[in-house]
Amino acid sequence: MAESIIRMISNKLLDTLYPPGLYCNCCGKITDNTRTYGLCNDCMRDIAWINGRSCVKCGKAMSETDPGEVCFYCRNHEHIFDKGYACAEYGAHEKAMLYELKYASRGDIGKAIGEIVYDRMAAELGEEVLAGAYDTVIPVPAFKERRDRRGFNQAEIIASSFSEYAGLECRTDILIRVRETKAMKGLGPSERRANIKGAFKIKEQKLQPINGKKLLLIDDIYTTGATIDEAASVLKSGGAASVDFAVFAAGADIIN
Hints:
five-stranded parallel beta sheet, 7 strands, 14% strand, disordered N terminus
């Protein structure tokens, strides 16, 4: 409790010293609050937006030399989720934004990312189609102890912001994380799947709200899909009709 209070006071102090909108959400350069997504012109240009061909399954950017519609990894690995959407490739600029969000308590960046995710999906589906495409938005949950240490779950902030733009219900009380997992960085695809296995469950009294529903999972990064697949497996076992996902950044196609 004391740590949460100290973190809240520190965040308010940071907002006073460095008001959101005054500095670029990516590089920190002085800017103004009229900038789209809080990004300066340079970062807006240099972020690796996925505007070209993307995998029709997971949403990763695809090389123009790849003749298929599905990325190499998805061609060689079955997924439990139905479809994914990604806004940008995971590079230096995207990493900088997510680092500030997660480790500098920059919730305003999470809100901007929620807007980015909404614009990405609305551009592909259309605003009216998107508004009716899903029954419920669910952020990928963090383990309680980790969430308490950080003071928030970044996926919740992104999902809440996205839902406001989309006019969709956002539920954080359905899918829960029941155990801590090792950091995924440095793990191979099979190790990631083993690491996340059994990490999620649905609160028993929340099974009815997802029965027969079309769900959209929200997270910050997608790499092999191990986390999304595990969450989708639990939700579909609980009766969900379909589970798509949307993320801010996606890693490169993996040949494995």
